[in-house]
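Appendix B, Record 12. Input sequence as logged:
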Amino acid sequence: MDTLSSSSDTIKFTKKQIIEETGLGKATFYKYWDRIVEAEMVKATRSFGKTRLYKLNEENPVIKKIIEVELALIERTTPRAVVVERRKSKSI
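Logged structural output:
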């Protein structure tokens, strides 16, 4: 999700780029890709030749919830991580 998630409308990815960025095997990627597209979790933004560019569909209710949970987790863990890091640096 992080690969496709971007606040910028200019950043879009090909399937090959998604595979490379996520580290998924091609077989695993293609096993689930059609379901992800059918569920409208991603959307094709433009095509040229046989190549299509995709981005995360941030209007999809499931994606909205995932982003909400991810942001809540970041918010809850970041202050603790900063405090722990400060403690480590002071003890060195």
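The chain has a mean pLDDT of 84.
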